[in-house]
Amino acid sequence: MLTTADKSRLVTSMDSTSEIMVVLRAARALLDLSQDELAGLAGVSRQVVVRIERLETNVLVDAIDKVRRALEAGGVVFIEASPERGPGVALSRRPKPVDGS
C-alpha cells in the first residue's frame, strides 16, 4: 500500500488529478478491460471507475490508487509527464516464465 508520501508523489508527478484519471482510462483501454472487469480487479465499484473516467472531482485518492495498482498488476507502466509531453501509459515487457523444459 502506498504511503501518504508515495500518494503525494503520484499526484504531483503529473500536472493534475485529471491527468492521472485520463491515463487510468487509457490504461484500461490498453488492457482491453471493461469497466466492470477493472472494478473487480481493483476492489472498487464500477461507479468509481465511471467517475474516474468522467474526470469527476469527488473520487477519493485511495480509490484512484486501487485502480492504478490493479492496472499495474495487469502489466501497465505509467510514464511521468515531461516539459514536452503529458503523462502516458505503456505495457511492460515482463520476462516469460521459465518452464524448466
Task: Record the SSE blueprint.
Layout: H1 4-13, H2 17-30, H3 35-42, H4 46-53, H5 61-73, E1 76-79, E2 88-91
Antiparallel strand pairs: 1-2
How does this structure look, described?
With 101 residues, this protein is mainly alpha-helical. 52% of the residues lie in helices and 8% in strands. It has five helices and two strands. It has a two-stranded antiparallel sheet with strand order 1-2. Strand 1 (76-79) and strand 2 form a beta hairpin. The longest helix is centred in the first third of the chain and has 14 residues, at 17-30. The chain is globular, with a radius of gyration of 14 Å. The chain starts with a helix and ends in a 10-residue tail after the last strand. The mean pLDDT is 83.
Read across the widest sheet, the strand sequence of neighbours is 1-2
Specify the overall morphology. Answer: globular
Main sheet characteristics: 2 strands, antiparallel
> How would you classify the helix and strand content by structural class?
mainly alpha
- The number of helices is 5
Q: Which quaternary structure do these chains form? A: single chain
Percent of residues in helices comes to: 40-55%
If you average the pLDDT, what whole number results?
83
What's the β-strand tally? 2
Q: What string, H for helix and E for strand, traces the elements in order?
A: HHHHHEE
